[in-house]
Amino acid sequence: MDAEDVLSQAMLKAFEKLPLYAKKIDNLKAWLARLTHNVCIDTHRDRARRQLRFENLEAADNAIATAESDIELPENAVVRREESARLFRALQHLPSKLREPFILRFLHGLEYTDIAARLNLAPPNVRKRIQQAREKLRVALIKST
Question: Which of 10, 20, 67, 133 could form a disulfide with 102 if both were Cys (CB 3.0 to 4.6 A apart)?
């Protein structure tokens, strides 16, 4: 179907342009082949532009959706701040031997081996302390609700 469309466009263009260039055309067959080739190239470029516009439009829609989802509602911001404050208070009540590994892991993003090296502990000990800290925090946060 695409080939038929391009051929139809080429024939219409030839019908339109042939009277204007008839005296300059030495080889009609070559002229028609070149005209058809040019129509094919134009059609290909138009499709590529439409596809690019569609992709750009799709990317813009995705960017808008992402930006809208990143906008925090005031109510959510208040709730998040209150939860952060509760967590901070609960962290302050942890013993330092549990608080330090927990903070290094979850606030600073360190790996267990890095925490172990920094605190001069064995990695299994670090894992256990973080597990204990999580449990104590869970209980404390449940109580504070």
Answer: 133
